[in-house]
Amino acid sequence: MTAKQQWFVVLGIVFALAAGALTATHFLKDELTSVSIGSDAPQFTAVTLDATPKTKTLADYHGDVVLLNIWATWCKPCRTEMPSIQAVHTQLVSKGLKVVAVSIDDAGKQQTIRDFAKEFGLTFEILHDSTGVIQSIYRTTGVPETFVIARDGSIRKKWIGPEDWNSAGNKILLEQLLAEARP
């Protein structure tokens, strides 16, 4: 094989590797990005529990401080943390905090979700994602998982498992974010 032929082989291999990398990046782009503190919160879609459900997305809360909780009615740790989420919501809603709890219960469980909200006296926004797609978008490992999203759309806290959202530390974080200027 001549030197010229060897270069063509090398260039062919480099081209094949580059094409493979571009193809993998295109098809695996969601798996290659991370959902972590400092990253932009991914967009999601879920519906309200109204008689005529309305579709909501993260864009509906643009410029707000959002406590995004991903949960399910069958989840015992979710039952543990819901009272603290309600308490922090009650204390900070007047300052602009948006609490958005997205249930991943199966389709047809809207009444179960409504009953859960009534049982716990929940007054914040509860949405439903019966497909559970939000779990893959946010790369959750289970429920509950909660994300604190700043006004600029970046994730400032990610918590796996139940948490006391009404604790002094969490309230300080939320109040600091609420004090930031809107973008």
Task: Walk me through the structure.
With 183 residues, this protein is an alpha/beta fold. It has 2 domains: 1-32; 35-179, Glutaredoxin (3-Layer(aba) Sandwich). 40% of the residues lie in helices and 19% in strands. It has a 7-stranded mixed sheet. It is elongated. The model has no long low-confidence stretch (mean pLDDT 92).
| Largest sheet, strands/sense/barrel | 7 strands, mixed
SSE arrangement, N to C:
HHEEEHEHEHEEH
User: The CATH topology of the largest domain is what?
Assistant: Glutaredoxin
Strand order of the largest sheet: 2-1-5-4-3-6-7
Please write the CATH class name of the largest domain.
Answer: Alpha Beta
Distance between the termini: 63 Å
Query: Poorly predicted ranges (pLDDT <50, ≥5 residues)?
Result: none
Helix content: 40-55%
CATH fourth-tier homologous superfamily of the largest domain: Glutaredoxin
Percentage of residues in strands: 15-25%
